[in-house]
Design brief:
About 85% of the residues lie in helices and about 0% in strands. With about 375 residues, it is mostly helical. It is elongated.
Length: about 375
């Protein structure tokens, strides 16, 4: 029975990247297994599935997996559970998330299992670079992950770690040529195996180009990202960067277009930090066009900053979609009204001009008759 249950669990993890396994089915599996190791795996799977839907449920299952792991002395279960909890609370409590991840790393090192140590170091590199802006520590963890994945001959993870090193070097204005080296290595490995990471690689290449003051090349590289199969995080980042670059070129229409695209993807993926960023960019772009729209998006960004973390995410985003649709309709009505008013003024001006010309000829003819 235990082997059959583990088979079901393995099948779920295999299919996870292609189809979303129904939450009810996972719960059903959980209710019909007595194996603690299987229950831990299923709970961590439920936590991952709930991550974008319900924070409380996601945290509950990760914490429950941790409790069972600790009770049964399952050290690998403890390590995986700590990592899952860290991922869940990363947005709301980054300090605690780092503490949990470092605790997981210590346990993994005690187990001397590089297959577990390497991904933890890779994840820590991401946290230190993105959340803590500590590029030195981020680079250290990324380089260590590269060495471990090289030993493990895990090409896919190695590609990702190359980009982590490059990201740390780029963020710190470090050796940009070295960053280019790692990105070229990542691109080489990616093309030999699969092109899955090319979008991410070119995002980092665009950052390097920006730091080298080659903005046009950066724009080309970002457009290349958008040609790759949709990945919400990568495409959103590309749209946001394009909006910023076009803002520097004062191409307002392009700024609004790319920011709106980023906003749409952010809503779909529930990345509210990106929602805030997109709203602020759109607001700035509208300052010289429509003051009401600029104020609307500024207030919206402020609202998301203050309240989104404390309310139900799904309800917030659904409401926002409706508000955004109303705002777009309002903007269209404003444009139509403005065009209508301009047309009316042109007609009146033309009529006045025609009357003036006619009056001029009448007066001139009268003077000729008097002579």
């Amino acid at each position: 029975m235990k082997k059959i249950m583990l088979g079901f669990i393995a099948l779920w993890f295999f299919n996870k990247g292609f189809t979303q396994y129904p939450l009810d089915s996972l719960k059903n599996l959980l209710n019909h297994t007595a194996s603690d190791s299987s229950r831990i795996t299923l709970m961590l799977g439920l936590s991952s599935e709930y991550a974008a839907l319900n924070f409380d449920s996601a945290y509950y299952y990760a914490n429950k997996a941790l409790l069972i792991s600790q009770k049964t002395g399952n050290r690998k279960g403890i390590i995986r559970s700590l990592g899952s909890i860290a991922a869940r609370i990363r947005i709301t409590n980054i300090v605690k998330a780092v503490q949990l991840e470092l605790r997981a790393l210590k346990l993994a090192e005690e187990e001397k299992d590089n297959t577990v140590i390497a991904p933890i170091k890779e994840y820590l590199s991401s946290i230190y670079r993105i959340d803590l802006a500590d590029t030195i520590t981020a680079e250290k963890f990324a380089r260590e992950a590269v060495l471990l994945f090289t030993q493990l001959k895990d090409t896919v993870s190695l590609i990702r770690s190359y980009t982590m090193v490059a990201g740390a070097l780029t963020s710190s204005f470090g050796n940009l040529d070295s960053a280019d080296f790692y990105l070229n290595k990542a691109e080489e490995f990616s093309k030999k195996n699969n092109n899955y990471f090319l979008g991410l690689i070119y995002l980092y290449k665009a950052s390097v180009s920006e730091k080298k003051q080659n903005k046009n090349k950066a724009i080309q590289q970002l457009h290349f990202v958008l040609q790759m199969p949709l990945r919400y995080t990568w495409h959103t980042a590309a749209y946001n960067r394009l909006a910023q670059l076009y803002q520097e070129k004062e191409r307002i229409d392009s700024v609004i277009y790319f920011s709106r695209q980023a906003l749409l993807l952010s809503l779909q993926s529930k990345e509210y930090k990106s929602v805030i960023r997109s709203c602020e960019t759109i607001s700035n772009a509208y300052q010289s066009l429509y003051k009401d729209s600029a104020l609307y998006y500024a207030n919206l960004a402020s609202t998301f900053k203050d309240t989104l973390a404390a309310i139900n995410l799904r309800t917030a985003f659904t409401t926002f979609l409706e508000l955004d649709e109303n705002q777009r309709n309002y903007e269209l009505s404003q444009v139509k009204a403005k065009n209508k008013e301009q047309t009316r003024l042109i007609i009146i001006g033309s009529a006045v001009l025609m009357m003036a010309i006619i009056l001029f000829f009448i007066i001139r003819n009268n003077r000729k008759h008097k002579r």
